[in-house]
Design goal:
about 200 residues, mainly alpha
Length: about 200
């Protein structure tokens, strides 16, 4: 599928742009930026795993990708200093659903992030923790054990990774001293063409 390689092209641009982002030097900003870096690594790994048809491991990384990204955005956009310090010092977090709701209230954007979480949440625990959903996707016809994932599901996974990597770059730019970047607008236009022609979930 061509979209696998389109995603790789997008990630290459994001890595290049992220290297230009000099983080404003507070402990909070450094922590949030480090979390965003973790999210970007998850995006990178999922794309490479999809390319190798290792869907079991790519799906296992989906929940950590979404949770880390949503937590990062919430810390940057919504959290008070006290809340940030609690997360840093005690590793205590609100539920992901509460975080994504707060993000969307803050941004006023369409509820894309919450729809992604709502649709994928019933399966992600199973994907990440050795449940039956990942195993079912490795049962082929007859007696063969092989990836058995519909192309539509693979495209949806690619769409989610494209969206999350875009969000990561937007947050890194916001946190950066180099706040001017035209790349987000171009990337958004490009994603509309190759990744988001269809809804992320049906």
């Amino acid at each position: 599928m061509e979209c696998i390689f389109k995603l790789r092209d997008q990630l290459k641009i994001i890595w290049q742009e992220s290297e230009k982002c000099s983080v404003k030097g507070t402990n909070e900003n450094r922590f949030i930026s480090a979390m965003l870096f973790v999210s970007l690594n998850h995006c990178d790994a999922i794309q490479l795993l999809i390319q190798k048809r290792n869907f079991a491991s790519s799906y296992a990384l989906l929940r950590p990708l979404l949770e880390t990204t949503y937590r990062s955005v919430w810390l940057n956009r919504c959290a008070s200093k006290e809340q940030i310090n609690k997360c840093i010092d005690k590793d205590k977090w609100k539920s992901t659903w509460d975080l994504v709701q707060a993000i969307e209230v803050y941004s006023g954007n369409a509820p894309i992030l919450s729809k992604v979480w709502e649709e994928l949440r019933p399966l992600m625990h199973s994907y990440a923790h050795g449940g039956n959903q990942n195993a079912f996707r490795q049962l082929g016809d007859g007696n063969y054990i092989t990836p058995n994932i519909d192309d539509t599901e693979v495209v949806q996974l690619i769409q989610v990774v494209a969206l999350m990597s875009f969000v990561v770059l937007a947050e890194l730019i916001d946190l950066s001293e180099n706040t001017e970047s035209l790349v987000l607008e171009k990337m958004s236009e490009s994603m509309q063409q190759w990744a988001l022609k269809k809804p992320i979930r049906n």
